[in-house]
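Notes, p. 3: input format for complexes.
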Amino acid sequence: MANIRNFCIIAHIDHGKSTLADRFLEVTNTVDKRDMKHDQLLDTMELEQERGITIKLQPVRMNYRAQDGKDYILNLIDTPGHVDFAYEVSRSLSACEGAILVIDATQGIQAQTMANVFMAMEHDLNLIPVLNKIDLPSSDIERCSHEIENTLGIPKEEIICVSAKDGTNIKKVLDAVVNRIPSPFLHGVSKDIDNTTKALIFDSNYDTYKGVVAYIRVVSGSIKKGDTVFMLGTKKKIEVLEVGYFKPKYQAASILKSGEVGYIVTGLKSVREARVGDTVWASSKIKDIDLAKPLPGYKKVLPMVYAGIFCIEGNDFPLLRDALEKLSLNDSALVFFPEQSPALGFGFRCGFLGLLHLEIIQERLEREYNLNLIVTAPSVSYIIYFNGKDADKIRKNTGLEPDLDMKVVISNPADFPDKTYIKEIHEPWVKLELVTPKKYVGAIMKMVDERRGVYKNMSYLDENRVFMHFEIPLSSIVIDFYDILKSISSGYASMNYEIMGYIKGDLIKLDILVAGEKIDALSTITHKEGAYHFGAKIVKKLKNIIPRTQFAIPLQAAIGGKIIARETIAAFRKDVTAKLYGGDRTRKDKLLKKQKEGKKRMKQMGNVNIPQEAFLSILKRD
Ligand code: GTP
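Output follows (622 residues plus guanosine-5'-triphosphate):
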C-alpha cells in the first residue's frame, strides 16, 4: 500500500486536464505509442472526442519508477470540467488522497478553479499546483504564481510549470505526486477498517459484454473473483464475476487490495443497482451486515433542468423509450417519465443536470439511435404550495397529487395549476460565482440585475481581476447566461454555480396560442414583473420563426386566459416549383422532395408547423 498513490486532476474547463493525462500515459508507457493515435485518450465517448470535452470521469492505473528508484502504482481519475458535471468531480475527489490543480498560465485562476479548490479542501486533499501551457507566448507565469499564492494561499515554490502539449516537466509532476501525496494507508482511512471488506463505488458503467461494472476504491480488506459481496445501501447480494484495473481499458487481475482503485464485474442489469456512493461490503460473518457502517457516500444528484422530448414520427415512440432506457443505464443523473402533450403527442419529460447535459443526450439520441426529435424549452422545477387543506378537491380539479404538506413539485409548465389553487410558488436559486477582469464588472452587474440576481460581495484576485458572488434564480442562468457572459466580457469571465435551495417567488404561467389553440409545449413560467414585455417579445419572435401558410395565423400570449400580446403571420403560399417552366418531371419532383425534407424538423400542430427552433428561441434573450 505504501507505493500506491490515488489522485485526480482538477481544473477549470479547457485548462488542459485531458492533455496532461495523455502525457502521463505516455511517460509511464501505460499506453503503447501506437495506440496514441488520437489525443485525449481518456475521453472515450465519440462526443467527448469531437467536442474536446470530458463528460464522464475515467480512471487509469499507471506504473511509474520515481526519482528515488522505487516503483509506484499511480491511480489517476480524470474528471470533467463543465459546471454541469461538477458532481462527477466531487466523486472522484473522495476516491483520492491528492489532486493536481491545473491552471492555464495564459488565463490564471478562473471561477471553477476556486470551486474545485474549495471542494478539494473539504475532502482534505493535498494539492499540487501546476501552471500549464507555458509554451504559449501569452503565458504569464509571474502573474499567475502571484495569484495562486495570494488567493489560494499556496506557496509559489510548490508550483510546477509545465507544457502538457510539448511535455515539458511532466516527470516533475509525477514525482511530486509520489512525494507530496500520501499513500492511502497514511491518509487516515484506517478509521474505517473494522475487519470487514469495504469499498466505495465512485462510478459505475454498463458494458455491453460485462454488464454493470462498478468502479471502486477499496478502503479495507480485499476483493477477488468469486467472492460474495453486498451493496450496503440495498443489501443486494452479488457474486463478483471479475476484478481488475484500468489500463485504461479493463484488465482483469487476481485481487483488489485495500488502497487500490479498480473495478468489479457485478452481473447486475442496471447501473442504478450499483449506486454511485454505495459501499461494497463483505465479511466472513454475513450476519453482521445489519451492523455494518457504510463509508461516507455522495449526495444523490438531482436533475436541475427539465425538457420534454418528443418524436417527430409518432411511431418512433417505442424506439425513444428504448433509447432513453439504454442511455440511462450508464447515466444515473438522467431521469425520464412519460408525458403526453395535445400538441406533440406521446413523449418523455426528462431531467438533466444542465443545458450541456441536455444537449449531449439529445445529440446521442439523434445520432446513435437515429431519432428525429422535438425538444421543448427547458424549464426548472417549482414547488407549489396549495391553498386550503382539501387534497381530494385539488387532485380532482388540477390533476396534481399534493403531499402531506399540501405541496407538489412540478417540472413541466403545462402542469401549472390555476392560480386560485396556489398559495405560494417556490423556485430554485443558486449561489453564482464569477471571475472577471474588473473592467467588465459594470456590465455583469447590470446583466445579473436584469435577471433578478442579487449582488453579495466581491474580492480582488489581483489589481485587475475580481471574484464576484451573487445569488440568482436558476431559471435566469439556465438558458443563455453563460453565452452572454462570455460575449459581454470578450470571453474573459468565467462562472460556477451551486444550488442553494428553493425560495418563494412571484411567478405566473405564460401561455402561447397559435391559431387560437393553446400550445402547451410553448408555455413558460416567468416572473410577474416583466411578464407583459416577455409575452410580447415571444410572439414577435415566433412570428419570424413559424412559416407562413395559406391562411393568416394569429399568435397570442396569455396570462390566465387574458390575452396580453398579439401578432399575426400573414397568409402566404410558397410555390417552390414556380420558377420551373416545362422541363423534365424529375426536376419538379426533386424540388418538392427538397421542400418536404425541409419540413422534417417541424411538427404539424393543428394546421401550423412549429419548427424546433421555436422552443428554445422563446427563452433566449436578445
Ligand atoms: P475538459 O475536459 O473539457 O475540461 O478540458 P480539459 O481541461 O481536459 O482541456 P484539454 O486537455 O482538452 O485542453 C484544452 C485545449 O488546450 C486543447 O486544445 C489542448 O490542445 C490545449 N492545451 C492543453 N495543454 C496545452 C499546453 O501545454 N500548451 C498548449 N499550447 N496548448 C495546450
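The longest helix spans residues 531-545.
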